[in-house]
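User: I'm writing a tutorial on reading structure tokens. Could you give me a worked example: one chain, its sequence, then its tokens, then a sentence or two explaining what the tokens reveal?
Assistant: Sure. Here is the example chain.
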Amino acid sequence: MNFLDIAKNRYSTKQYNPDEKLSTDIVQQLTQILQLSPSSINSQPWKFTIISDEKIKSEIANVSYHNLEKINQASHLVVFNVIDQVAKFEQENLSQLPEGAVNYYNQHVKPLGDAGIKNWMQHQVYLSLGFFLAAAASMGIDSTPMEGIQPEAYNNLLQHEGYTALFAVAIGRRDPEDFNQPTRKPKFRRPLEEVTATI
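And here are its predicted structure tokens:
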């Protein structure tokens, strides 16, 4: 299947089959894909938490608003976390980058101040989200990106010092009766001429 067909068939899964778990091999592949995600100046200001433990997944589900059922049904939950302190990023990530990347950061990102730098770091994590969703779809894995979470509660449960949760993605195999799949509910997108321009 070419990528256009994958894009046409990918959707945000609303119902998972709780009896179908992803294999260890598939999860390891997805973990490596996350590690290889692109980011501006190769900044990588992230930590990814892959959760399969049903007890922890249930605790996370309880602080995920309307996403509770999807998380409990899904095979795994991936939490995308971002570095929450500029000093930590500069000491641990920036210090490992080549001179050109450091110069770019100092000239174009650092002048934005702490709030601007944190916003820039969050953008990098969103790049990894798009990369991950596309990769999962290419492997025939269903997914649901979720911003409907309680970050502070996630942080308390996950205990990743120096990081804060941004969003999560449920992954697994869809319930064949899922009402949201394209064969039952056609995708709605704005017309091509409204969202693209050729110059």
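What the tokens reveal: The chain has nine helices and four strands. Strands lie at 46-51, 76-83, 142-146, 163-172.
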